[in-house]
User: What shape does this take?
Amino acid sequence: MIVARDISEFQRARALLGASVGFVPTMGALHAGHSSLIQQAKAHNEATIVSIFVNPTQFLEGEDWDAYPRQEMHDLAMCQSLGVDIVFMPTIEAMYGSDELAIMAPCKAGYVLEGATRPGHFGGMLQIVMKLLNLTRPTRAYFGKKDAQQLALIIKMVKEYFMNVKIVPCEIVRDESGLALSSRNAYLSTTQKVQALALSQSLHRASSLIEQNQLDCAILKEQILEVLQGVDRVDYAEIVNRNFEVIQTIDKNNTIILVAAYLGTTRLIDNLWV
Ligand code: AMP
Assistant: This one.
């Protein structure tokens, strides 16, 4: 496994890879959610690249960029054991110059839900994903449904900018209690981990009601919010179509239910693709 920290080192290693390349971009502190993406990349492609970069431009002022968990040794050991070919771990200076050209998230889908709470987040995210896709030139790139809005915006960028890569959406990996795995779960105390179960449980409640043919989003939202009483503060609970427009009635082929909530100062998200 090659660990490349600067662009030319990366490009030399990239030039030696086979015909099909799978790419998994991450911010590190790798967990089983990340490894499921890496395993899929391994299964579908001749070679696999993982990037680890805590991208400053997608964090807002006052967010947790400084505190974000960094576990280089652990991450490299995990990539090695999964058979990754190249780990790209660039410095900020390698990725960004001064007076950078920016990418704007779309005015509608980029500024609701996550984009409303974190204005500017998706512009920074699209900027780094564009840079990483251009550098890695993968056949396929793997993204988790855990970050549903991020995934949708990346699919939109790839389509609208005629980028030659297949985006592969990957299912959400949860722990045995149902909590969606996230690097930010490391911030939670034992009590908060129990409280955090309200997120997945609220989605579970909605899913059971939908199975019983309750398709009225107002009623479903009430039920979701009732379960979410277990958290410290709800940021949003919303039911949208795949364009991230709020809907009134569940369409079983085109609905995502999303929740975001705080446990203390930690903000977690979860979602359910109906
Ligand atoms: P991150 O390191 O949090 O930026 O995540 C890197 C990639 O892993 C993104 O595509 C995430 O959506 C995905 N991911 C993170 N957590 C999970 C999870 N629990 N299940 C599936 N994918 C995940």
User: Anything to note?
Assistant: The first helix runs from residue 7 to 15. The chain has a mean pLDDT of 97.
